[in-house]
Automatic annotation (TrEMBL):
<dbReference type="InterPro" id="IPR037171">
    <property type="entry name" value="NagB/RpiA_transferase-like"/>
</dbReference>
<comment type="function">
    <text>Catalyzes the reversible conversion of ribose-5-phosphate to ribulose 5-phosphate.</text>
</comment>
<dbReference type="InterPro" id="IPR004788">
    <property type="entry name" value="Ribose5P_isomerase_type_A"/>
</dbReference>
<protein>
    <recommendedName>
        <fullName>Ribose-5-phosphate isomerase A</fullName>
        <ecNumber>5.3.1.6</ecNumber>
    </recommendedName>
</protein>
<feature type="active site" description="Proton acceptor">
    <location>
        <position position="111"/>
    </location>
</feature>
<dbReference type="Pfam" id="PF06026">
    <property type="entry name" value="Rib_5-P_isom_A"/>
</dbReference>
<comment type="subunit">
    <text>Homodimer.</text>
</comment>
<comment type="similarity">
    <text>Belongs to the ribose 5-phosphate isomerase family.</text>
</comment>
<feature type="binding site">
    <location>
        <begin position="102"/>
        <end position="105"/>
    </location>
    <ligand>
        <name>substrate</name>
    </ligand>
</feature>
<feature type="binding site">
    <location>
        <begin position="33"/>
        <end position="36"/>
    </location>
    <ligand>
        <name>substrate</name>
    </ligand>
</feature>
<feature type="binding site">
    <location>
        <begin position="89"/>
        <end position="92"/>
    </location>
    <ligand>
        <name>substrate</name>
    </ligand>
</feature>
<dbReference type="GO" id="GO:0005829">
    <property type="term" value="C:cytosol"/>
</dbReference>
<feature type="binding site">
    <location>
        <position position="129"/>
    </location>
    <ligand>
        <name>substrate</name>
    </ligand>
</feature>
<comment type="pathway">
    <text>Carbohydrate degradation; pentose phosphate pathway; D-ribose 5-phosphate from D-ribulose 5-phosphate (non-oxidative stage): step 1/1.</text>
</comment>
<dbReference type="InterPro" id="IPR020672">
    <property type="entry name" value="Ribose5P_isomerase_typA_subgr"/>
</dbReference>
<keyword id="KW-0413">Isomerase</keyword>
<dbReference type="GO" id="GO:0006014">
    <property type="term" value="P:D-ribose metabolic process"/>
</dbReference>
Length: 232
């Protein structure tokens, strides 16, 4: 007996396929990190196999670089191509103002660097990622220099966050840039993402936050029966 297909997985696949159609001949693109971004890479790989030529793709993580290489997508970097035509990535939460929480996969710093290098940042997701207020479903990740992790953790706690240094398999998790991640849960959600982002950035030792504000230009929500795109 086969297990039923998860509607969330179908949504990710639909969103990834729709986003792959935005990539045109000769573009330089950015590729995000995570399960939804992998669906994009698979769809783009099929288009490359069928003759689409792109100049190159800048990956936002080592994991993405390796996965894209499996699909013969040419890899480049921001030294060779400091301005990208489009960056496509998933998100953990998306609010009505297109503000995002990202970084569940631990690539928030590189994701933000690549996103800000692109003329256009398109987010792909399934419906579960849409929220009325950020911070209720996913913790806010904060990337931190290892030397500063304890004082930064204490400062974040004084902002009202429940804080935890991210671990994987019982060990501290290090990003591709060799930093640590502190996950911050705000019990009442994040009421003012812009102010919170500025406050956290003012703490010495903080490298980046998972708040993506005024960056996303368009959202593609994949559903079993199609996609929802906004703004059109």
């Amino acid at each position: 007996m086969t297990s039923p297909i998860n509607p969330q997985d179908i949504g990710k696949q639909k969103a990834g396929a729709a986003a792959a159609e935005l990539i045109k001949e000769g573009m330089v693109i950015g590729l995000g990190t995570g399960s939804t971004a992998k669906r994009l890479i698979e769809a783009l790989g099929e288009r490359v196999k069928n003759g689409l030529h792109i100049v190159g793709a800048v990956p936002s993580s080592d994991e993405t670089a390796a996965y894209a290489a499996q699909y013969n997508i040419p890899i480049t970097n921001l030294d060779e191509h400091p301005e990208l035509d489009i960056y496509i990535d998933g998100a953990d939460e998306i609010d009505p103002q297109l503000r995002l929480i990202k970084g569940a996969g631990g690539a928030l710093l590189r994701e933000k660097i690549v996103a800000t290098a692109a003329k256009r940042f398109v987010v792909i997701a399934d419906p579960s990622k849409k929220v009325e207020q950020l911070g209720h479903k996913y913790p806010l990740p904060v990337e931190v220099v290892p030397l500063a992790v304890t004082p930064v953790k204490n400062r974040l706690a004084r902002l009202g966050a429940q804080v935890a240094i991210r671990e994987r398999n019982g060990q501290k998790f290090y990003t591709d840039s060799h930093n640590l991640v502190i996950d911050c849960t705000f019990p009442e959600g994040i009421t003012d993402p812009t102010a919170l982002d500025a406050t956290i950035h003012s703490i010495p030792g903080v490298i980046e936050t998972g708040l993506f504000i005024n960056l996303a230009k368009q959202i593609i929500i994949g559903k079993p029966d199609g996609v929802e795109i906004y703004p059109q």
